[in-house]
Amino acid sequence: MPVDGAAGGGCLGSFMRLKQQHPHLQLIISIGGGAASQHFPQVAASAATRDHFGKSVRGLVDATGFNGIDIDWEHPSDPEQGRNFLALLAAIRIHLPDERYLLTAALPAGRWALQNIDLYKAQDYLDLINLMAYDFHGSWSQKSGHHAQLYPGNMPDAANGSAAVDYVVSTGFPASKILLGVPVYGRSFLNSRGPGHPYQGCGGEEGTFEYKLLPRPGTQEVVDTTTISASCYGGDGGWVSYDNPQTVRMKADYCRQRRLGGLFYWTGTADAPGPRSLISAGFKALHDA
């Protein structure tokens, strides 16, 4: 899909035209993410600001013709913020009633963050949770590791997607409302022999390579069927952890077995064309079986 510059409305304008051409598409606007999450604590802290936010997002959704919004607050950092998060969702639902609009939330795939939110109550407001089952390791880690592994493998304490799903479901949140996140990028660890080993710096842009640039030139791709992860070793990226079509198909099978809502991808523009497309692999695995 071509994305125009500012003069053409940018990404938002492109998606608005796409919605007009294909009215059956379900499109939502994601608000927040990363540094853009810094305003959520203040917005969610009072009834007045929550209501104002709800009115604002209703205006945005109606102006664009989209189907709803995604709240990407990364992340409520204590129980009070967790309660305010639920209050914010409740305020949004007043202005975006569930019989007409979609409301989703992107949440980290870790108990350290999820424990601050009453997920059982959250199901009353949310259509879906986008469970960000990636960035388990990166430039902030003391040792290298798979950044989107589904299982811990021989490192039982390692963060993994399945453990996050187990925790969310254990709270009473419906499995059918969980989308498992797939990264469309890899994380690089220079001078590392692989997961659990020391490294010296990171390659790529801020330690990452877009998936369409992987595996790196001159390297061989390896799939670990124990953790459900792919990687390549050597070249300018050192050891790079990522997903490939084979691991995405395995994750899709996992979603079917656990009766999850499906997969989501961050971000689509970094996907590879043709037979190496992650999005295509996941779609076929979810729908062709």
Automatic annotation (TrEMBL):
It comes from the Eukaryota. GO terms for molecular function: chitin binding; endochitinase activity. The lineage of its organism: Eukaryota, Fungi, Dikarya, Ascomycota, Pezizomycotina. PROSITE patterns: GH18_1, GH18_2. This is chitinase. InterPro entries: Chitinase_II/V-like_cat, Chitinase_insertion_sf, GH, Glyco_hydro18_cat, Glyco_hydro_18_chit_AS, Glycosyl_Hydrlase_18. GO terms for biological process: chitin catabolic process; polysaccharide catabolic process. It is an enzyme of class 3 (hydrolase). Residues 1-289 form the GH18 domain. Transmembrane segments: none annotated. Keywords: Carbohydrate metabolism, Chitin degradation, Glycosidase, Hydrolase, Polysaccharide degradation. It catalyses: Random endo-hydrolysis of N-acetyl-beta-D-glucosaminide (1->4)-beta-linkages in chitin and chitodextrins. Belongs to the glycosyl hydrolase 18 family. Chitinase class V subfamily. Its EC number is 3.2.1.14. One of its GO terms (cellular component) is extracellular region.
